[in-house]
Amino acid sequence: MNITVVGLGKIGLPLAAQYALRGHDVTGVDISSRVVDLVNSGIEPFPGEAGLDVALRDVVATGRLSATTSYETAIPSADVVVVVVPLFVDDEARPDFGWMDAATRSIGEHLTAGTLVAYETTLPVGTTRSRWKPLLEQVSGLVEGHDFHVAFSPERVLTGRVFADLRRYPKLVGALSGAGARAARHFYESVLEFNDRPDLVRANGVWDLGSAEAAEMAKLAETTYRDVNIGLANELARFAEKSRIDVASVIEACNSQPYSHIHTPGIAVGGHCIPVYPRLYLWNDPEATIVRAARARNASMPDHAVTLLAALQPDIAGKTVAILGAAYRGGVKETAFSGVFDTVRAVEALGAVPLVHDPLYDDDELAALGFTPFHRGDAADAAILQADHVDYLGWSATDVDGLATIVDGRRVLDPAAWAPAAYTAIGRGA
């Protein structure tokens, strides 16, 4: 097949490489000429995606993958167009469709009969049918279900392990017609391979959920579940602190029973997915009080971590605080919705001076994010672990000169390594 992938970001580019590795001819479209030039040179535009560097060099060298900024070049010859363009959402749960509208319009301007258009960007329920179908029909003059087909198939992968997750999880699809569903199933079965999963209720592979709306809701539901579960874990952690109980031992005990799956509490929930998609769900269902409460609880955790610091070190005003980790999670060079921003603001609100360290970012990159860099071995009066980078497991009190207090926001540090500094952690009431 000739496949076009629109959006060569941290999900779109690995998808394009995956399709090319399966022997298809793939053209990637991106608005960034820098990204296009790097891809055409066989160079990954962003680090950290396992296997992408090798895959990209392979498929570019063999001519299976190329990139362009031109929809006119990429769309007309495509049998399948896969759309992985970002959708943004504000704090009031209002989605901003600007980039996706523009991409869909550009696709429609060059769409030809017989094409399948598959959206993978997470969407509010109903968007594929009520927004993308009429826009593509209006711009192209073609009729969906007759001249072309539209399907929704949510990406379900984590940055850093995209290729492994593509094999691990069933590929959910939902189309707007029976013919569209058959086309989507054929496409994804042609470009993906699946691990054997005897734990699943049915064989791992492409799962047709019967409608685009069901597939849209499935992605929102699975991600919102995680946010709500983490919100519960954070509620339990805060109560445990007041009750002088270590919540980690409680959660471990609870999860020994097969019907309990309590997640891990922590200083922040970041990334492009978990903090965002519950807001898209709330846009569909504004009366979802549980979802709203969990999102608020999780958003409050950076302030709570700084409150724990102030309780241990009441004279923190005027002192320096090293915040360890700018990334939203360990091992990933990405700051989307990272807890570092609210942690910095909370430290500043106490009159203290925040310094930020991250092993994945150099000083210039940290400064560009608005932070004053901290270096291993520098002096600081206090520290807060924000991201669980593996590097920090090898740190101790000797790596922060003059350290008096540390708050472990991720429950991963060895308290003994940080003595004689005062140590506490989220949910560590004992």
Q: Strand order of the main beta sheet, please? A: 3-2-1-4-7-8-9-10
Number of helices: 15
Rg, rounded, reads 23 Å
Amount of beta strand: 5-15%
Short description:
With 430 residues, this protein is an alpha/beta fold. Helix content is 39%, strand content 14%.
Describe this structure as you would to a colleague.
The protein has 430 residues and is of the alpha/beta class. The chain has 15 helices and 15 strands. The strands form 3 sheets. It has an 8-stranded mixed β-sheet with strand order 3-2-1-4-7-8-9-10, with helices on both faces. Helix 6 links the parallel strand 7 and strand 8. Helix 1 crosses helix 3, helix 5 packs across helix 6 and helix 13 crosses helix 14. The chain is globular. It starts with a strand and ends in a 5-residue tail after the last strand.
Set down the secondary structure blueprint.
Blueprint: E1 2-6, H1 12-21, E2 25-29, H2 33-40, H3 52-61, E3 65-68, H4 71-74, E4 80-83, E5 88-89, E6 95-96, H5 98-110, E7 116-119, H6 127-140, E8 149-152, H7 162-168, E9 171-175, H8 178-191, E10 206-208, H9 212-243, H10 247-254, H11 277-284, H12 289-299, H13 301-312, E11 320-324, H14 339-349, E12 353-357, H15 363-368, E13 382-385, E14 405-408, E15 422-425
Parallel strand pairs: 1-2, 1-4, 2-3, 4-7, 7-8, 9-10, 11-12, 11-13, 13-14, 14-15
Antiparallel strand pairs: 5-6, 8-9
